[in-house]
């Protein structure tokens, strides 16, 4: 493998690659929540208030405060769940997971268990190649489009190594022999 031929020259004019706000701006986590889920959440909250204060029979004089607390907590809980569903529907896409399967899980499993399972099992967010902007999964060592090195690897067997390793733990290769030490490439570029 030729270590000296990354396509840096291309990087300047290849930024026109298609953009996706969910991958390109990982810090905008709250902005992932789509408008329909915010609207649904407000709608659900007001529907619960109407249910408790208009449709249900009027409370006994002594329990009016309790009725307000119940309507507020049920409204908040269900409204938050709508926001959560909206967030997951967008979050699942930037992690290269199956949107249909996970939305079904979250909607069908009772009491929010589907959402808990989702947050336990979700994959890391996709990133972009610093050189050509291709979308990359978290475990790639090289960009599939331009061979940009993304993680420190052994120059002989190309398995991952730690930046402090002197020898490859898989094949025993002396990492200092790599033409430009492979384990350092991603940090010096
Ligand atoms: Zn690339
Ligand atoms: Zn090796």
TrEMBL record:
Upper taxonomic lineage: Bacteria, Pseudomonadati, Acidobacteriota, Terriglobia, Terriglobales
Domain DZANK-type: 129-172
Protein name (Swiss-Prot/TrEMBL): Zinc ribbon domain-containing protein
InterPro entries registered for this protein in UniProt: DZR
Stretches for region Disordered: 1-26
Annotated TM spans: 33-52, 64-88, 100-121
Stored Pfam families: DZR (PF12773)
Keywords of the record: Membrane, Transmembrane, Transmembrane helix
